[in-house]
Amino acid sequence: MKLELDFYTIGQWCGYFAIFMVFFTIIGFIFKWGFRFRLVGVTAFMMVLTGGLFTLTLGLFTPTVIPGAVRYSLVYDNGANQAVISVPLDIDEEAIEPTLIQAAENLFSPGRTSVNEDDKLTIRIRTLLHPQPGITKPLYLGEVRRSLSQRDDDNMEVKLFSENIALLPEITEDNSEDSI
């Protein structure tokens, strides 16, 4: 059985009840009811519960899964309009664009702000090359730019850096079986 929780609606009704309890508590103090201090406790509890339910609406997140995307690690995020993800060196060229789109969907947050006036989140994808022992060179494979204000952005700009993709080492599969 799948349980759908709509914390926004539940929090909204708890907020209404908390407001009702505030008025009820005020009436209790006006008429000097004996249980008026218990009403203060119930009102305070309802306010804390409403605040907690509101924060749950902001925090629960189901990650988007795009077919063809590979696992990535977030290596840089300024919390505003720039992020960098890292992928393994053996990534297929066909997996770069779905991975960028998946990262753009998963890294969206309504709390991000624009440092400049373009109102776009830029996510770059990179891998690490090791041209010589002891030397590591980051290789940027592409970037995606999406809106900072709209969750469902249909106008994402995906740009692949083909000259850098050509530098990826060819992965050859050895189809020979080892006998034990």
- Please tell me how large the radius of gyration is: 26 Å
- Give the low-confidence spans: 172-180
Instruction: Give the CA-CA distance, first to last residue.
Output: 47 Å
Strand order of the largest sheet: 1-2-3-4-5
- Give the number of helices: 4
Total count of strands: 5
Domain tally: 2
Q: Please, what is the average pLDDT?
A: 86
**Shape summary:** elongated
Percentage of residues assigned to helices: 25-40%
Q: Beta-strand percentage? A: 15-25%
Question: Could you describe the 3D structure shown?
Answer:
The protein is an alpha+beta fold. The chain folds into 2 domains: 7-59; 73-165, no CATH class. The protein is built from 4 helices and 5 strands. The chain has helices at 7-30, 36-59, 96-106, 162-165, and strands at 73-77, 82-86, 120-132, 135-147, 157-160. Helix 1 (7-30) packs antiparallel against helix 2 (36-59). The radius of gyration is 26 Å and the shape is elongated.
Short description:
The protein has about 180 residues and is α+β, with helices and mostly antiparallel strands. It has four helices and five strands; from the N terminus they run H-H-E-E-H-E-E-E-H. Helix 1 (about 5-30) runs antiparallel to helix 2 (about 35-60).
